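Exercise: predict the fold of this chain.
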Amino acid sequence: MPLQVIIAAMSTPPLGHPPAQDFWIFGYGSLMWNPGFPHIEDRPALLDGYRRTLCVKSTIYRGTPDKPGLVLGLDQGGSCCGRAFHVAPEHVNDTLAYLEEREQVTKVYCPHFLDVTLNDGRTVSAYAFVVRREHDQYAGDLSVEQQAHMVAQGIGYKGTALDYLTSAIDHIDALGISDPELHEVLALAISLHNTPK
């Protein structure tokens, strides 16, 4: 099935201009080390105009509605080093269905096609999930202290927000990506978590 037909049939059509042929996905969080879909190539990639940040309240996986945790999202502004995955045409439909189920539980993200620069110099249009600023789970204007508090308190279906952030930073560091703000939030969250109540 042609890529344009698959995209047109999606429940939430992505913003931006879809590629004519090659289908790439941009990962900035757990997709970088745990994509969960077959791909024929993956490369370090740079996305300008968006940044990786703790901007999504987690009310299911890493928190509850009463005590939300905080997880990574892709928000406007800055730039983001991540990984781009090239998906073979015969796997695009299943991959999009998988990503919809994995990433869109509460519809906090809006899929986009965004230009990313691969480490070999190529620029490709990649499918990425950008946080919806109008969504009630959006938390993009929190101070480092507020972020740390939410990370320290969050416990949900898949565990703690603190474990999530620790694992995310370990993987991001292992990929050679520098993200000092995340380290700052983590250090403060650990301190808050270890403070007797």
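Check your answer against the key: The beta strands are 23-27, 41-58, 69-87, 109-118, 123-131, 155-156, 159-160.
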